[in-house]
Description:
Number of strands of chain A: 0
Radius of gyration of chain B: 26 Å
CATH topology of the domain at 4-76 and 174-245 in chain B: Rossmann fold
Oligomer: heterodimer
Helix content of chain B: 25-40%
Strand content of chain B: 25-35%
Number of domains of chain A: 2
Number of helices of chain A: 27
Strand order of the largest sheet of chain B: 6-7-8-3-9-10
Protein name (chain B): ABC transporter ATP-binding protein
GO molecular function, one term (chain B): ABC-type transporter activity
CATH class of the domain at 4-76 and 174-245 in chain B: Alpha Beta
Main location (chain A): membrane
Distance between the termini of chain A: 71 Å
Bound molecules: adenosine-5'-triphosphate, magnesium ion
Keywords (chain B): ATP-binding, Nucleotide-binding, Transport
Shape of chain A: globular
CATH class of the largest domain in chain A: Mainly Alpha
CATH topology of the largest domain in chain A: MetI-like fold
InterPro entries (chain B): AAA+_ATPase (IPR003593), ABC_SmlMolc_Importer (IPR050093), ABC_transporter-like_ATP-bd (IPR003439), ABC_transporter-like_CS (IPR017871), Mo/tungstate-bd_C_term_dom (IPR008995), P-loop_NTPase (IPR027417), Transp-assoc_OB_typ2 (IPR013611)
Order of helices and strands of chain A: HHHHHHHHHHHHHHHHHHHHHHHHHHH
Shape of chain B: elongated
Amino acid sequence: MSNENKPKGQNSKLGDWFRTFDSLKIMKWSVYLFFFLFLVLPLFSVFLVSFTGQPVNILGSLVNPDIMATNIERLSNASLEHYQSLLGGGTYFYALRNSLGLAISVSILVILLCLPLAYAFARTTMPFKKTLAALCTIPLIVPTFISAAGFIIMFGRTGWVNTIYQSLGFDGLLINAYSMTSIVLIQVFFFFPFALWPMVAAFKIADMSLEEASNNMGSKNWTTMFFVTFPLAIPGIISAALLIFTVSFSDFGTPIILAPDGLNLIVVEAYREISGFFNWAGASILTIVMVAVAAIFFWLQRYITKNKDYGTLSGKPKGMRLNDSKWVTRSLLVYTCLILLIPMFVLLSVLVQSFATTWGADFLPRGFTIAHYATVFTRSGDNIMNSLLLAGGALLISMIVATLVSYFVVREKTSKLDFMSSIPLIVPGIALGIAYIQTFNTAPLQLTGTAFLLIVAYAIRRMPYMIRSTMGTMMAIKSDIEEAAVNLGASKLVAIITVVGPLMLPGIAAGSILVFVTVIKETSITVLMAPADWAPMSLMVFQNLLRGEVYTASAMAMLIIVLVIILQTLANKITKNSLY
Amino acid sequence: MGSVKVQNLVKKYDKATALKGVDLDIKEGEFYALLGPSGCGKTTTMRCIAGFEKPTSGEILIGDKVVNNVPANRRNCGMVFQSYALFPHYNVFENVAYSLNIRDLYSGSMGQRAKTFARLMSRRLSKPTKEIQRKVHDALEYVELGHLAERGVNELSGGQQQRVALARALVMEPSVLLMDEPLSNLDKKLRNTMRTTIRRIQQDLKITTIFVTHDQEEAMSMADHVAVMRDGEIVQMATPTELYSSPKDPFVADFVGSSNIYEGQVMETNAQGNPIVKITDNIHLVSDTRTDKKDVKVLVRPEGIEILRKGSTVKSENVVEAKVKISTYLGPTIRYDLELEGMDVMVEEEFQPNTTLYAEGDTVSVHLPMERVVLI
Ligand SMILES: Nc1ncnc2c1ncn2[C@@H]1O[C@H](COP(=O)(O)OP(=O)(O)OP(=O)(O)O)[C@@H](O)[C@H]1O
Ligand SMILES: [Mg+2]
């Protein structure tokens, strides 16, 4: 009996090895390979280049000994020389200083602006809350370079606001569109919703019982507000500020349009180094600095929100007493409307310009026409198509990868993948673009300048959003449903395809739309990496702006905005996770 | 073919040891219950058999084949999950047809496989084969759900969902049927009907069944054999009657039904050779359990104790006086909590019409028949 069993046992061992090395494992390794090739490798190469000052071809070294030799030589010459200019008060130093200054001022201003807003939404019976909440999401929909363009329409030399200003008898300009001030203003008024909702959450969660106690002890409402409510909400507020810092620091659209010649900002500087001068050393140092700064602030933000779940806004906590004083709610309503007025004016300016024949130094355009839209549709049909194709490609990649990552992270507790897939959150678009261009511009993986690399870049950059969406639905799928499928004879892969996949569909759909939308809006990577024959809409708007064809730029911009609004509404319908 | 053997099964998790050497020997066609308190390792045992957990050591045999290295999807164990785990995107028919479709997916021509795959993805793409229709129909009829085939599973009651889960497991003609607390989500009345349904089907099909529960009544009333587990070990394996009348230790005794348990010492044996146990100085009971031990646990089931009506007598040494503390009317039975020299005694009597209940403070004579006084 036992003699018979032995050879059989060995056979089955080999069979087992094959069986355990199943398709699911191959998938997992493919996902790892994907992240390694298109995330870890580019960032690591940039890191090396920042020391060597010359391209380092890691992949090439693996296949070709000659390249290996060159690389080793370059590495042996590595030095900190290139970093010295950063600290030594050179251009890079000023660029970093200005960018930090910008990000800090924007964060502080946003928090100050949001305090009354957050209080209004969280703790009062302000009228029209729902509508106002919906309006508050609009600034996020507009790509920043379009807001910047709108700002020029208002505050340019012949902008209509400045025109009014001068007609009132003042001299000069109210605000110069091409200045640090206007960059700050654009970012404040278009990024504040990022901070608003976390702050609303913080205000809702801040311990009510303490407030009650303070009220019972006879404090007036407003003293309670300043000495009890605000301090309790402070962790949430700080976290919101840090988030704004990262967003502002890595924003490319505003500064590239509005930064005057004398104003060095790190994103603009990096863009010039790579696209103008092919200065590998400079571009990589700036990339490393950008990633490092973003990473520090991202980490700080995570650290502060750790163990504090500001994400769950399930209704009002019991016993919450909302402030319903007429005086308070009305003034807050006026304040909210005033805040919203500015982004609305910016958008309106773009809208009006897109229909204008000419719009010079007057309050209104000379006449109206739909010619610009006709031009857009006849001349730029290809760009619209390109946008859709590129976004579609990015969506497909991120859909597959995100589904698999969610599966492995939730079911197999693969925390390494979880970590890896969240790295893109700290890599500013410009930095990712530079890393890609450097890494993939030589054999064996010569991809720079291809649509494929652009699509991958989009996909990687938006992966965290997709994963957040799919991970949510994946967690909601109980593992026993999948086990039931396996129990009924399906292999794990078949179980995933037939059972898990269909059940994840809502999450996948919502995430997909989100990816699609952000890709259509994406500026930095597009400007840096889009090949001429694949130019998407956002690149066309950008180039038209630079060329001074502002009317077509506006028409195309409106098209993007409308597309984004439609898709975003669709996504909200699907997830149904609106805040109110 | 359908027998199950588990030998010295050990399962260690990072921090805890869930199973510390479990042995089971289940004959083909037997209905076997795994009974034990929460956290004792019942689910873990079952998941090891189904192939969802890899045992740390030990062997599992289904039929006479070692299945340790057979992946879960080839073990042909039908499992009914506690949560039913129905597929919410399929209707009743498709849920039941799933295993048949999967079987087709792995066999047959490429064209047929493609059709089957399309069918699994959406019912609109391809119709099920005649054979699948017949088998699913039969399985649904069997659980009395034939009329609900086209319903969505979320439009079913708990009991109906339970039946779908059962039909889904049965339709694949499994060599073993595994059920993890299948009735715990149902209300009491439904639980009773499902008990009979499951038992009927099991008897009809003669299918080897392992049934996990922490409800002793469920285990005792349904199973041919019961294995009582504690802390990752099997304490006793026996038929329900054996388990009840001669539990191996106080844990089992307590778990398979409420009981009075006392410490006692065997003093001597009487003329018939039966041991006399001293419980307190004044209370000495005769038992017919033969034992070598001196310190023993004395177990008397509440319904084994008889309260003697006024005037009636019995010829027995085991009669004592006790005081009524509480009397509770439970419908078919009456429960008395008595006090006997500072000890609590629980008695359950059948309710006879036209009798009055003893009242609090009454003194009664209590008879503990020798054969109901069990020493362990
Ligand atoms: N994945 C796991 N990781 C670590 N420990 C586990 C895991 N699964 C189960 N355990 C532990 O193993 C022990 C047995 O668990 P099991 O689920 O088998 O209990 P059970 O008898 O089915 O209980 P219940 O009646 O509550 O379902 C428990 O102590 C549990 O904490
Ligand atoms: Mg269990």
